[in-house]
Amino acid sequence: MINYFFISSPLHFCIATNLAISNKDDQNIALFISKNKATVNQYSKATKYFNTIFNETFDLSINPERNKLKEIKYCFKKIEKIITLLPANKIFTGNDRRLEFQFTMYKTRLINHNVEGIYIDDGAISYIGHKSINNLLHKYVDPYLKKLMFGTWWKSALTTGSSSWISKAYLAMPSNAHPLLQTKELIAIKQEVFCSEEFLKVNDFLIATYNGLTKIDFLNVKVVLCLPYESLYLHDQTFLSNISKAILKDYKAEELAIKAHPRSKNISVLKENFPRSMSLPNTLAMELLLPNLTDNTSIIGDVSTALLTAKWLKPNLKVKAFEINNIPNNLKILFQKLGIEFVNIRSH
Known about the structure:
By secondary structure, the protein is an alpha/beta fold. It has helices spanning 10-22, 37-49, 68-85, 99-111, 125-128, 136-150, 197-207, 231-234, 237-248, 268-273, 286-289, 305-313, 329-337; strands spanning 2-7, 27-32, 56-59, 90-93, 116-120, 166-171, 185-188, 223-226, 256-259, 278-280, 298-301, 318-322, 341-343. The chain has two domains: 2-197, Rossmann fold (3-Layer(aba) Sandwich), CATH 3.40.50; 212-347, 3-Layer(aba) Sandwich (Rossmann fold).
């Protein structure tokens, strides 16, 4: 049995590793398609190092600085070579709208008609649906243009995981899946694998790639603050001070670890507002951080997939979300179902 895992985010990597460990008797192949070259390099080092988990690793990522169409065609040629040598039985993806996945399904099905397309959890979108699900451009124009440009093999997906290429979905919370995903065979991801020795070794390997992170004594971390993109607080002088007041009522500054949004650049502002607190790398994925935290740690942050991930990977953690901007009602209901509390920081 040959399994392909398309990986374009840290969450995809963690779930792919979980499933590869669960299917260690199969031949598991990692296919990286992230736009972030640094992330690809970091995570592909792990898949190559742990070659008993992932037997082969391929970098299919496209260089965004080059002509996109040429890059895609070059990627397709690489895919055709791979599937000729290693025709897949199962193809896993966290985004079935990606051209790389759909092209691989199309070409592989010409070789192996029984190949399965399988969706792996991509966070909040798996439960509340694509933000443009009812948008006419998303529903009709984009699929038409894709078919016109690439061929009839392109399959529309109103929300991620719902295309006709997909027959099964591995989810953290199958019972809460979006209605379009409930038409697929839903399978719960084995949570215990995330605590297995094999998985934790991979996690430790990746943690070691962050400078200074191994020096942090996580036993002293009582609360992790996950901040939204910096545009929110750079233009609102009260935002960070309100958060500080809310958190420091219950915790000491030295017990607080600050994690900026991955795309944030003005980290100095956070150091000014939280001078005695620990600083975590903003590119550190929540999925890598969690195994290092004790069950007594709290996670506080904006409404995001990071909070969802924290709650289902480590259910005993106390997770709280800022009540800022307009939160979609279905997302709020999902958070409340999981026991994630909402905090109105404006009242502090």
